[in-house]
Design a protein that fits this description.
By secondary structure, the chain is an alpha+beta fold. Helix content is 13%, strand content 23%. The chain has one domain. Strand 2 and strand 3 form a beta hairpin.
Length: 277
């Protein structure tokens, strides 16, 4: 099997930290962190979503969650839970037929193109496993470590921009629903996929994403999302709720991508899908 793009990204994440055990140790409960602190708030009273967010450990660590969300059923059972649907599992018949013509070599991330959503079901991550949010009185800025990724989300009541060309991550506007920040994304290009790692997940230019961010407490961020694409999906994809933790470091770094970096992955990729989605 080819090494996935995510493996390359995560390897870089682990390398720059220099002390993954210290990261994990920083997550250990203490007397000071046993009782969750309230979420910080901005001067306007809205919760402050700012911070570096991850799953609580590097991928493969004790708190890392699988891409589909929860891996075990409620009640302490040992049998795996029914896996949640994926974007491509909801394809219309014509989309299923087209997806069968695609494979690892067609994955746009091998050409350093960001995903439209995210391989770990968190758009803040893209194909990585950590992201940063910076909140100002007018904007929420979302940064990813991969592909120079960013998204600027205004929440001052302005509409979507009709004059800008379609983009890989879409055009975003936000609004507050109580303490929940709602992000509406439209105007996507159809040249990338929903996720990476050879998971065939192409979409159309009719893609529409709505995300809901809620900072539960000082250290916890909940994210819900729904993806609609009437040209390829039989019904909307409701993404499993994602729960992120505030990282014990306050800056992300750039993990650049170039065609040279990914050439070995392109060479090793099989030409057709092996059933991943």
């Amino acid at each position: 099997m080819m090494h996935s793009m995510m493996t390359v990204v995560i390897a870089g994440t682990l390398a720059w930290s220099g002390a993954a055990p210290l990261r994990l140790a920083a997550q250990a409960p203490s007397a000071e962190t046993a009782t969750p602190k309230a979420a910080p708030r901005m001067a306007d009273g809205h919760p402050d979503l700012s911070g570096v967010w991850w799953r609580g450990a590097d991928i493969g660590g004790r708190s890392a969650a699988p891409p589909g969300g929860q891996g075990r059923p409620q009640g302490g059972g040992t049998a795996p839970a029914q896996p949640p649907p994926t974007f491509s599992s909801l394809y219309q018949p014509s989309a299923v037929a087209h997806a069968k013509t695609l494979g690892d070599k067609d994955d746009p991330t091998l050409h350093c193109t960001p995903t439209a959503f995210g391989t770990l079901n968190v758009s803040l991550f893209d194909v990585g496993a950590v992201g940063q949010i910076i909140q100002t009185p007018k904007f929420v800025v979302m940064l990813t470590e991969t592909y120079h990724g960013f998204q600027i989300v205004p929440f001052d009541g302005r509409p979507h921009r009709d004059s800008v060309p379609p983009s890989n991550r879409g055009d975003a506007v936000g609004r507050w629903d109580g303490d929940t920040f709602v992000v509406d994304k439209t105007n996507f290009t159809d040249s990338n996929w929903i996720s990476a790692e050879g998971r065939v997940s192409y979409h159309s230019d009719a893609l529409h994403i709505v995300e809901r961010y809620r900072r539960v407490d000082a250290n916890t961020l909940e994210i819900e999302a729904t993806l609609e694409d009437p040209k390829v999906l039989a019904k909307p994809w409701i993404v499993p709720k994602q729960i992120l933790q505030l990282a014990p470091f306050d800056q992300i770094m750039e993990l650049a991508c170039s065609g040279i970096d990914t050439q070995s992955l392109k060479d090793a990729a099989p030409p057709r899908t092996a059933g991943k989605n």
